[in-house]
Amino acid sequence: MEQEIKVCVYGATGYTGVELLRHLLNHPHARVVSLTSQSYAGKRLSEVFPQFEATHLGSMVLSEKPEEDFDVAFLCLPHETSLDLVPKLVRDRKKIIDLSGAYRIKNATKYPEFYGFEHVHPELLEHAVYGIPELFREEIKKANLVANPGCYPTATLLALYPLIKSSVEFEYVVVDALSGVSGAGRKVDQKFHYPEMEGNSFAYSIEKHRHTPEMEDVIERLSGRSVAVRFTPQVIPVTRGMMAKVYVRCEKLPYREIYRESYKEEPFVKVINQPPHIKYVIGTNYCFIFVHYDEKTSMLEVISVIDNLGKGASSQALQNFNLMMGLEESAGLKQTALYP
Amino acid sequence: MEQEIKVCVYGATGYTGVELLRHLLNHPHARVVSLTSQSYAGKRLSEVFPQFEATHLGSMVLSEKPEEDFDVAFLCLPHETSLDLVPKLVRDRKKIIDLSGAYRIKNATKYPEFYGFEHVHPELLEHAVYGIPELFREEIKKANLVANPGCYPTATLLALYPLIKSSVEFEYVVVDALSGVSGAGRKVDQKFHYPEMEGNSFAYSIEKHRHTPEMEDVIERLSGRSVAVRFTPQVIPVTRGMMAKVYVRCEKLPYREIYRESYKEEPFVKVINQPPHIKYVIGTNYCFIFVHYDEKTSMLEVISVIDNLGKGASSQALQNFNLMMGLEESAGLKQTALYP
Amino acid sequence: MEQEIKVCVYGATGYTGVELLRHLLNHPHARVVSLTSQSYAGKRLSEVFPQFEATHLGSMVLSEKPEEDFDVAFLCLPHETSLDLVPKLVRDRKKIIDLSGAYRIKNATKYPEFYGFEHVHPELLEHAVYGIPELFREEIKKANLVANPGCYPTATLLALYPLIKSSVEFEYVVVDALSGVSGAGRKVDQKFHYPEMEGNSFAYSIEKHRHTPEMEDVIERLSGRSVAVRFTPQVIPVTRGMMAKVYVRCEKLPYREIYRESYKEEPFVKVINQPPHIKYVIGTNYCFIFVHYDEKTSMLEVISVIDNLGKGASSQALQNFNLMMGLEESAGLKQTALYP
Amino acid sequence: MEQEIKVCVYGATGYTGVELLRHLLNHPHARVVSLTSQSYAGKRLSEVFPQFEATHLGSMVLSEKPEEDFDVAFLCLPHETSLDLVPKLVRDRKKIIDLSGAYRIKNATKYPEFYGFEHVHPELLEHAVYGIPELFREEIKKANLVANPGCYPTATLLALYPLIKSSVEFEYVVVDALSGVSGAGRKVDQKFHYPEMEGNSFAYSIEKHRHTPEMEDVIERLSGRSVAVRFTPQVIPVTRGMMAKVYVRCEKLPYREIYRESYKEEPFVKVINQPPHIKYVIGTNYCFIFVHYDEKTSMLEVISVIDNLGKGASSQALQNFNLMMGLEESAGLKQTALYP
What we know:
globular, Dihydrodipicolinate Reductase, domain 2, 340 residues, 30% helix, Rossmann fold, homotetramer, 13 strands, 11 helices, 21% strand, 2 domains
């Protein structure tokens, strides 16, 4: 390890925290020096998650606060905890990758409605860079604070970006998306009790979901146009994985070529010729995309799949880390999907 | 059993056949006299499906052709086999409930494109009644030949019917639907091998699916208007269950009330106030519906769930049987969902 | 309904309570008059479980205590709640079927170790009849208080009973059993959070499980011999179903014939020639059994499958009800397994 | 990559082949130069398995025979194909790791009964080293031909080895083991069609399974004693994972300490204090073991979990490769389990 970067993972015992640790174990330059946890402070990591038993992280003790100095903080924390912690870390001149939603939307007035709190640090919102590398790579390279995106917005924006980049006009945006249950976090919930969720599927938060303004905000910033999104999230009985189907009305163009061209240099986005399976990406940082234009209805349909905990959260955070630290963008992220 | 109706199940060893038998065992007036099967002719039913061991059907021997006279035929057969068998049964003056797609679409010219065969009996298409009781109850009561609908059209048409009935104008019909794997039948397939399908989900037949003209045909017949449907079927890792999300653009109206009013007398359609879970209907003939109008996008979203093998196939066939034979419509169909 | 029996279900909103209601809906003589629930008192049943929306039970209001007089009480309650309620119901001369463990073991001294409480009503233990009809049918017919067995003991004792009945000497009893997650109840638990349990399996309570003395108690009462059982329960990622594999050392005998003969009159136990699948019995009151004697090791292996919520709990409770009330033993229990 | 070893994977498109490729992508010294496949010859790897799209392996073309010279051959082939290919590779002085069963059992006379063929190369059986590094590490280091073990024997022998090593006398060996469905391979099968296998579990090959003589053979070679194993394999509805529960009768000793001591230097075997979950090891080369002695029955119970495609097949093959080539034993094998 020629270059060594000291990393603190805040909130290491949620699903995004543990997934981040799994990826960090493969990273050639990151060294985890602190793991925080409120619920498990004082325990060794392998006491809570025995799969780390045989790794050097297994014997690390979880603490309420970081106990060693670090260069970069990953925040796998509740939204409000992140909201308050970020300004302190900014003052301490740390690099920050915030996996919560606290700094994703530029417009501070949206927070009370969608997050249930006043955004008390609106001045930081403009410094926060929205962390989808395929959309904001250059800004991320220079950022000190990256707001790591939600899983639904990642899948959706990667599906829409080539249209925006090519200035295609589109309307009637329907985003119908399926998520694995891990997207709801590690906290138990009657709906996600195994006997209830096995063999089940349902839509939720149809009237209002906090990822809708996040999508609309980025689309507007990139395209200069205001677009209303009809968003229907659903949960399906898989642990991981996400599939977004994005429907828009637009003129006929050679979309498959436009998409291929748009993403041809991207290491983690692949445009393929048949609808992707979510299993193509489980455990990875990849996004697979399929594009179909239907002349009968003048509708373009784009299907994108990601791992909600991967490109939708933790591995994308690591991709952002690589960019912020001037490392190879895919360092630590070269695994292929677990199959079968 | 005051009244006894002799029933033959053709193709008894596919998933719709076995599910029909499960329901027929609970039926107060139907008596199964013949079970046909090409693959298992000569075997006892319980040799193939041990769960029937303890029922009176268990010792029935599967035969290539019916071996006893009967009043009503259920056809759980491949499309082309049904195509050829129906005229013969019509000549023999049997009542017929055809669970295949051979007689569902009125326009014979659609069959080569969507089913891959010429419809050689177009004269029977106008006699065939499309078997969704909520839409065509009176015709079904008088029918000798009922074309039992596909699962996707059942879920979609029940979601759209109150709009059509109330003459609401709508456009941009997007039907995004999730199906359990049993919808693809009992025949093995690499995609549905357990290790491939567990934890997986994907869209298929996006360019062309034979249920699209079936939906469009019925919408046009009921509304007098031609409507193009953008239909995206997907498979999720559940054995049974189907969820259709139907998106249309239309003016604002009190849709929840319109839907409740429309279905208030229906024994098997329930309009509820939150998005339904597919587990509400597994093993039953019910359809649960949720309606949401989104002012921001001027879109109505209707979510309906059914059991693809229940209301989407076999129990709906039995509901049609009850109507055709003048029985109580819910005879043999009073079970609630298996939970959890 | 010529004969009508008024039934109260105590604890109607746990998994055994709901499953019992599902079966009671099919019963020709039982009429549910009261449903109790501590957590949901004041709500309609269909508010909690929408699948009952369309049944006459859906509009029943859950209450803390029964609000109407009744003939028979089903107790789907925690062990300690049952412990205290039973004496009161006995005084009121109700027929009682207790699905908890409070009255299953005859020896009151076992309760502190295995249930964590003193058995304060030991005088009732000898009146309580252990509710496996295949073992204690005549006693059940005359009983006022039936202790409905645990799921593991039901599967195990049905697997061992023909040996005991035939006075075969056996030793080294290993019971290795797999259970669906619903066996752990409806209460949420980190281990049974969907993302943790999907794709998972593990053994638990290996040192001590309360079903071990229950099995040993019945074996000793029936055989007159004390037998120690090595019992290893495991959970597998299915919602329902249970498979017990019982290994004993014994001399070579024609066990398949002995088992068939032993159960030939039983409506709900089927001895078959290949290892049973748990899907043969899901949603039913059946037990399927397979027997194999291995000469090389002088071991007999018996595999039995049941639905842990069916023959392992609620449908067996209804079978006991039928016997206690002098009804046809299989009334309300004639369904075959949901397949696929 | 200072040292580069050219590798050919025969039978690259089965589950063990693909899993091996996934691990080889992480290996610092192995370079895959040829991939053979009978079914997919002429196709690019990523056409068959799109998850390889973004890796350098994705564009490799599958061929009927190796098209480039190589140092080491991994044989992920049917037993009989391996049987015939091995002698040819031996003559060509290749290092061979055979994942089939063709060279696992020393006694050639067992093959007709358990594999259905005469072993036509018995002279090679004594040269083949049985590839469990924890049991035969030194032999593997010097081997040219390693017979990579079956998944059930790996889990079982790791559970029994400390007893043998400590010369503990034991009897009545019951091995009751659960396997994920991928253990049955990629070939479709009615039993493993998703709708049949979801929610299901069953035992199979109870009378005779080819892994029984494999276990007995190794136990006898290591202990000098002949031991008969009662082996009951079962399939549970998970894609990957295996749990063996091994029951033996033996005197009381401090087994937990014996096991810890026995495996304390092993990088891939961990003895823990509670029954392991199969999810602790998914995607890895680890084996987790739990030990419990039950005084009441004088039985020792050992529970071991592995990934049937990992330590039970492909990653163990890579561990053997590392030993044979004088590399760090854990090269390419440092991943932790995918969680959740």
